[in-house]
Structure formats: C-alpha cells, structure tokens
C-alpha cells in the first residue's frame, strides 16, 4: 500500500427522478499528493490518480442533513490511507447548496436509493470497479446519514402510524458506523428487525439534534444487541463528528464548527479515525494496518466544483 490518497469525482444518474449527483471518491494510490482546494477546504490528495492495490473493500459515507461530504474529509482520507475506497455522495435536495427536500418524505426515500445507486456506479466504473470487493461494503452515516445507513442495511422507516417509507435493503452492506444517528423514524418494535450487520454506534453526550434516546432505539430494536459496539462520546456535541473547519469558518454563529466548552475536536477526530478503522478491519474480516502519512505535498490546480 502507498501512503498517498487519490481522489476523483463520479457523477451518478438517478433515472427515476431525472437528476444527477456527484460522488467524491478517496482511495489509496502510489502518486504523491498535492494540496487541492475545494471551496474553503484543502485536501491533500492526488487528483484523478490511479487506484493502488485491490481488491479493496468499499465504504460509502453519507453526510448529515443539509451537509457536505467534505465535512468528513479527514476520516475519509484516513480510511483511504488504510486501504479502503471511500465513496461520498452529495445527497440531492439535502445538502449545503440545496435544501429543497430536507424536510420532505421524498428525501427519506431518495437517500437510501442514492446510496445504492452510488454503489452500483462505483462498482461498474471501468477503473474503480475491478479494484473493489463489491460484496463487502460498509456504510458510515452521521445524523441523517445514520438514518440512511440503517435504511440501506434493512431498517424500515416510518413517518407515522401506517406510513411506511419505501426503502430497499442492500445485501452488499456488511457493517455500519453510525455517528449521532437520526433514528427517530425507526420507532416501531420491528423497524430494525432486519438490520443484522455489525454496528459501531457513537452518540454525543450533549447532542440536542439527535439526542441519545435515538441511539438507544438502535440498541433496543436491532435483532442482536451483542453485534452493536456502543460508545457515548463524553462532552461531545452533534457536530463534533465533523472534520475541524478552516479558521475562517470557526465563528460562534456557525454551529457546525461549534463544540461544547472544553471539547477538543482535533484530538477526538484522531481517536475517531482509529476507532472506525479498527471496527471496519474487524467487521469486514480483513487485516489492515495504518499507513504512514504523506509528508509535505505541493499545491496543484483547483479541480473546480466537482463536489
């Protein structure tokens, strides 16, 4: 394995809704990284570099409501260095630039389907597909991304009594990482009876957006609680799972960059990366060790608004 991270963007088509959405990919490569600017963020990646190694397990990372895949860039980069291919779709109608569906039932249906379409597209890609273990997929989801992961893995969401959300279980998903999951749509006692994969469940002590009772729903309703690794992150808030923001965005009025007093997001992110990688290594039955981080990296051209 190489210590470097490659990146590229795919465009996925949803024929049912007549729309397309971008997917940011990160993966191991032998090409030295450079600093790539994406809006206010800087990524140390080799843009459009070839994938090294394989077959590699696939991880799909689903961002929170009205969020962006780039908010999880440090976790994705760490996993790519550790031998995973990470696909991060930007959910249409529920992202930082377009919130038109964020409060709609359509969003609850779209998100899981778009994850499945992402897996289809990545696995059929001429370059990426042959490098992947397409039947050995993990999902990581934060907040609404946690909802999405549960729905893809067999959960049956409901918007109210007798009001099922139409979702389809994907058997390719073999493990879940849920970070402050929005699990409030899985209230009926049988809502998670088919969510039987190993789960790493992380909840924040001071989360007012997805309070701890939502994580407790997962513990109570999955068929085998012994398959859930559960951790309460002390003094964390809902947004503590996001990568640290660039200094210009760390303002008191920007809630995603704000943590409870005394919480060290940078230190927590380092622990989060190790916890997630360790869980995925064990759950996907592979042996992987962290690769050394690349040193330096020279600036390269901005690839544009790929994501």
Overall helicity: 10-25%
**Which stretches are low in confidence, meaning pLDDT under 50 for 5 or more residues running?**
287-307
CATH class: Alpha Beta
Alpha carbon gyration radius: 18 Å
Structural class: alpha/beta
Average pLDDT? 92
CATH homologous superfamily assignment: Alpha/Beta hydrolase fold, catalytic domain
Shape descriptor reads globular
Features:
307 residues, alpha/beta, Rossmann fold, eleven-stranded mixed β-sheet, two-stranded antiparallel ribbon, 13 strands, globular, disordered C terminus
Structural commentary:
The protein has 307 residues and is an alpha/beta fold. It has a single domain, classed as Rossmann fold (3-Layer(aba) Sandwich), CATH 3.40.50.1820. The protein has 5 helices and 13 strands. It has an 11-stranded mixed beta sheet with strand order 12-11-10-7-5-6-2-1-4-3-13, sandwiched between helices. The chain has a two-stranded antiparallel sheet with strand order 8-9. Strand 3 and strand 4 form a beta hairpin. The protein is globular, with a radius of gyration of 18 Å. The two termini are 26 Å apart.
